[in-house]
Amino acid sequence: MHDHRFRFSVTKMCQVLGVSRSGYDAWVGRPVRAQAQRRARRRDQIRRAHQASRGRYGSPKIAAQLRRAGERIAVKTVARVMQALGWRSGVARRYKAPTQSAHGFPVAENVLAQQCTAGRRHAVWMADITYVRTDEGWLYLASLEDLATRQIVGWATGARMTQALTLAALDHAVARHRPPAGVLHHSDRGSQYAAHPYPARLARYGMAGSMSRKGHGYDNACLESWHSLWKKELVYVSHFRTRAEAEIAIFEVHRDLLQPAAPAQCAGVPDPGGSGDRGGQRLSNLVPIFSVQDLDLGP
Description:
Elements: H1 10-17, H2 21-52, H3 59-68, H4 75-85, E1 124-134, E2 137-146, E3 152-158, H5 163-177, E4 184-187, H6 191-194, H7 198-204, E5 208-211, H8 221-233, H9 243-257
Parallel strand pairs: 1-4, 4-5
Antiparallel strand pairs: 1-2, 2-3
Helix pairs in contact: 2-3, 3-4
């Protein structure tokens, strides 16, 4: 009846079907009010979740966040509300800096060979460099990730993509975690990792070096996936006047992303969980951002 109310007389349909008009009106009135209240409440929940993410989250993440809060809601429902209100997640603008591999330094053997898992903590550390655009110029971020736990074990920032930056991140990771000898350190073939004294520093820490080969982009997929995640959530939808602003924002976005539902994907391999995984970490439990000048970078 309700679906055909614009084609036929409601009173006539009630007579034909043996339904009282007052009963039909009561049926119509009650659900409409309840549905309207439910829709309004969901719009408010979606609005607050979208604002809390500073406009970065799309319908999948907002739906997952609401479901964790006990709401029964589908991604399509969130997408429909966001579309009606003109909301959308930030869209990434891609830029890829080439690896500085045209050098004459020795290149370590690719021991990792695209293995994206490790059986224990401090078995494999992945190293990589990424960057953030500011009005002052690029801010570079060197990170190290534990392959078993997906935990960012060390990082450092700097205005130049030099070996001092990668050494600072390595030194900080070792000082913080003091891993046993035998860690396999995997990186790309960039000069920041190949040139002396980086291999010497690895040897001093009892680490073995491993480097990707050309065309083996999946070797560092785990750490690159993490960099890609927070850059999509922050960098591509923000404008930074200074490098200091970018450093503060990196703190904030890491705090937002390192929650129980934060994805930590690695070439299709799910986050292993545990006390060291990203999902259970807060930023205070990870590594503070610091600059290369904060460390003694002697050989």
